[in-house]
Amino acid sequence: MNLRELASQLGLTYEGDGTWVIQSPASLEKATLEQISFIENERYYPVLKTTQAGVVIAKPDVSVPRGNVIRTPTPRLIFAQVLNLFYRARLPKPGIHPTAVLGEGVRLGERVYLGAHVVLGENTILGDDVVIFPNTTVYNHVNIGARTVIHSNCSINDYTQIGQDCFIQQGVAIGGEGFGFVPTPEGTWYKMPQTGWVVLEDGVEIGCNSTVDRAALGETRIGQGTKLDNLVQISHGCTIGPHCVVASGTGIGGGTTLEGHVTVGAQVGIREHVTIGRGVTMAARTGIHSNVAAGSTIAGHPEVPFKVWAKYSAAFKYLPEIQKNVRALKKNLAVLETRINKE
Amino acid sequence: MNLRELASQLGLTYEGDGTWVIQSPASLEKATLEQISFIENERYYPVLKTTQAGVVIAKPDVSVPRGNVIRTPTPRLIFAQVLNLFYRARLPKPGIHPTAVLGEGVRLGERVYLGAHVVLGENTILGDDVVIFPNTTVYNHVNIGARTVIHSNCSINDYTQIGQDCFIQQGVAIGGEGFGFVPTPEGTWYKMPQTGWVVLEDGVEIGCNSTVDRAALGETRIGQGTKLDNLVQISHGCTIGPHCVVASGTGIGGGTTLEGHVTVGAQVGIREHVTIGRGVTMAARTGIHSNVAAGSTIAGHPEVPFKVWAKYSAAFKYLPEIQKNVRALKKNLAVLETRINKE
Amino acid sequence: MNLRELASQLGLTYEGDGTWVIQSPASLEKATLEQISFIENERYYPVLKTTQAGVVIAKPDVSVPRGNVIRTPTPRLIFAQVLNLFYRARLPKPGIHPTAVLGEGVRLGERVYLGAHVVLGENTILGDDVVIFPNTTVYNHVNIGARTVIHSNCSINDYTQIGQDCFIQQGVAIGGEGFGFVPTPEGTWYKMPQTGWVVLEDGVEIGCNSTVDRAALGETRIGQGTKLDNLVQISHGCTIGPHCVVASGTGIGGGTTLEGHVTVGAQVGIREHVTIGRGVTMAARTGIHSNVAAGSTIAGHPEVPFKVWAKYSAAFKYLPEIQKNVRALKKNLAVLETRINKE
């Protein structure tokens, strides 16, 4: 593909030699003359001086070494589209492996792929073009929407509802029983049965070895287009709104609501039964104890506005010095008071 | 079932219309006239004004809208029992799937269920009514007690001893080698062989994708009735006492002891080789560096009494202001001292 | 084996009765007269007074109760070797289970073991003496070096390159798509395709249910002899150098480099796109926001030198008291100033 053809496919303008041949995408540091890359963050502008990339996707005001450039206000987003053009998803062809086990009442859409040793429970229903990789277990009464991909060694429990175009990575466990135990007068724990289910709306993605529990009553819901990273925990009865992103190692307590368009950094903890407003951003490691107002940017444990936390994090290492100074001040002030009282 | 019959089954008294028909349990917010719910926490008393629940389980002093009420000092516990009455555990019927693979010397109790592609290693022994869901692997020389349930895609390594009435959720890994490496003079790491095993006593529950490692020597033990949430790490050689609860994302270091009836919040970290006394409660995110006395309630990193941490967490955001004030105080005091010295 | 024979096998000197028979290794606390143990950390010297161990491995200057001793400056390391002598790894004999599924173009070395329901994708290549336990899935175009062991229920995605003598524990997910999403002008998230792969160099070990993601472009690399504990997250595009150890619950952000010989405590978080110098040590729970110079020992969130954090962690609980004192100081100083101004 040459520069003119690629720009045309993307619906964008280009500058430079339209006949320049592009063989694949690459990072700015490693690209060769036959490759296309992109520049967006100003932090990486110095790399433009040394890059060997033949073509660069860049913002209107940025000049590139060879003059071959595709113009857009969102170079990173366009580069993602270019990657999709060159590397189509490496999905297997339709077909049911003979070792797959299908329960009674299973219904399959057109062009479904089931890998070796996949197990589908009773009355489970798969839409068209669903892909399930080997050694994944789907329990009974599960619905899986069209074009959804479930990678290998996942486990999807009873009554889970999965939308269209979802992407579930390796080792994910959905629909486990929520952690609900009632203390008894004898000091032991009595299980609160978890009779609910999990709903994933369309376009949800879940990273490797993450866990989404079913509710005690009713549903745990993950909203349209929301993306979870690896090793994330969503507890029973959560309502995660649409178009959130949740980074790795984060845990969200039972019955908590994220209203939508919430950005959650890595290793965040959110307590149970709170509401996080629309558009909130949380720094990595934030520990949430209360409701958070829509649009806030927060950090710390317990949470405070990000600007406050930034000041704290610059100051915390001086705490021992401050403590020492306060002791000295008390002493010196007392000395002074004594002197003045004597005079 | 009507109100009179249900109260009788629970061995409790009721008030109101004993012929009121109850079709299912539900939360107070969503219940309809044909449903039963409960009220325990005073925080939710306002919901009583609007609930449509036909019957409510409540403490002796609480009045409910329709007057149909089951009386108990522990409404939440009784509601859990009601849930169990209505929704019997959704367990499969006994039977060995033809794709299950059984090693030499395997012995099975009565009425065992083995799902598709379950693998049992050599000399593994299962008690009566054991249930193992599909794609789970059990290694050699494992004992599993009566009525224990192991969900799908779990992995149970050699010599693990699992008691009766345990409940192991999806994706759990038990008996992996503990993280033991000895530094060599060359700056590399030599593996300390992990020759031990894991013991789960009766009634233990383990949440999805959690991990329990076997010891270098001897055992890692989880006590009777202890419940672990999802994504919990129990390191080699731990002794977790009876009737503990450990919330999601917590990690417990090697050789550490929890004496029993310990409550561990989410994302807690406990260092290796410490002892946590009986009945300790830890807030979420506590980071334990030392032994903890029985009965304490603690928080923070490193840990302090919860009351101290609560004061700290109210104050920490003022640290930059305090730092500024201390600087100003030093300056002002110095000015004052100079003035007085001159006079 | 007797003491003389064992010392000879280890190439070390002994003192005491060379004919003393040793049946197995054990901890100092639990060893009997027929067992061998070791003492290294001075903290455990008091146990020497009561131990029943027949033979002890100890440093040159340490005297042991029965006088039967093997001398070395590194007793822990030698004990690990003794354990290896007594408990050979419990690995299965070579053989391909009839339920294993091999894709087209698979090539197997000599003496390979494939457990029940193992799946190998197309064009995957295994070296000699590779061991793969049941229910593990290996995708297409994967290379696995000689003597590598992969435990059960793991999932190894396309194009992963695994070296020789690696050890992958139960439930590990390698090669999942990195968490790369580009915000669109509409407030949704567009997937950045993850077209790269994962490389594990020789001697890498990975703990249960850990996750290593593949890069958007190019590789995620884990260096020779590096050991990861359970539930560790390595994000897309990381370069982890040789001979690092990473404890449980730690997450490392995308594109970050650990230069080698780095020791990472439990539940650490390292942000994306930073470089950690050679030989750095991080305490448990460290939260890294910036590059870290080689050889540092650090702790805290954000990170500070360990010594600074130790002082902070002793002082933090006094913050409310300091705040109170500062308020009082301001007031008292103002009173004093007023008095002096009046005089």
In short:
Chain A has four helices and 38 strands. Chain A is α/β, with parallel strands linked by helices and 343 residues long.
Provide structural commentary:
3 copies of one chain form a homotrimer. By secondary structure, chain A is α/β, with parallel strands linked by helices. Chain A folds into 3 domains: 3-86, Udp-n-acetylmuramoylalanyl-d-glutamate--2,6- Diaminopimelate Ligase, Chain: A, domain 1 (3-Layer(aba) Sandwich); 95-307, 3 Solenoid (UDP N-Acetylglucosamine Acyltransferase, domain 1), CATH 2.160.10; 313-343. Chain A contains 4 helices and 38 strands. A 12-stranded mixed β-sheet of chain A has the order 6-9-12-15-18-23-26-29-32-35-37-38, with helices on one face. In chain A, strand 37 and strand 38 form a beta hairpin. The model of chain A has no long low-confidence stretch (mean pLDDT 96). At the A-B interface, strand 19, strand 20, strand 21, helix 3 and helix 4 of A face helix 2 and helix 4 of B.
